[in-house]
Amino acid sequence: MLPPGGRKREVDIREVLNAIFYILLEGVRWRSLPGDFPPWQTVYTYFRNWRKNGVWVKIHDSLREWVRIEQERHPSPSEAIIDSHRACKDSLGRSTSALVPEDEEQLKSDVLSCFNLLTRGQF
Question: What is the pTM of this model?
């Protein structure tokens, strides 16, 4: 992520990721990040920059493709199924999708599991 010859990082990227995952799992505010993580401003800056640069989307897409290949499926889904019990409309009547709490927890678990496999080189 750093261009060659750039300034050396002062923070461990793994600790930044751990802090982001902590916020995701615990639902705490950025400013409430415990002191054993890097400063919240640093963590938030990495998160915001990665979001603006599309890094999170690329990670998501790569993990989805790797999991689908591991399951011997085509890397890109060809169709989607919408569960009518989970679909809802916003105040203007537009369709939106909503995650129920159980789905949110499953999503968090899946992302963390895939990330752990990725960092251990098991994909």
Answer: 0.57
pLDDT < 70 regions, the chain: 1-4, 78-123
Helix (H) or strand (E) holding 96: strand 95-97
C-alpha 26/C-alpha 100 separation (Å) is 17
Q: What tokens does 89 get? A: 């409309």
- For residues 38 and 91, the answer to whether their CB atoms sit within 8 Å is no
CB-based contact 101:108 (threshold 8 Å): no
Q: Which residues, in sequence order, are CB contacts of 95 under 8 Å at separation 6+?
A: 87, 88, 89
* 118-123 contact pairs (CB < 8 A, 24+): 118/63, 118/66, 119/14, 123/66, 123/70
DSSP three-state, residue 101: helix
- For residue 109, give both structure tokens: 């678990």
**Per-residue model confidence as pLDDT tens digits over 6-33:** 788 889 999 999 999 999 899 899 999 9
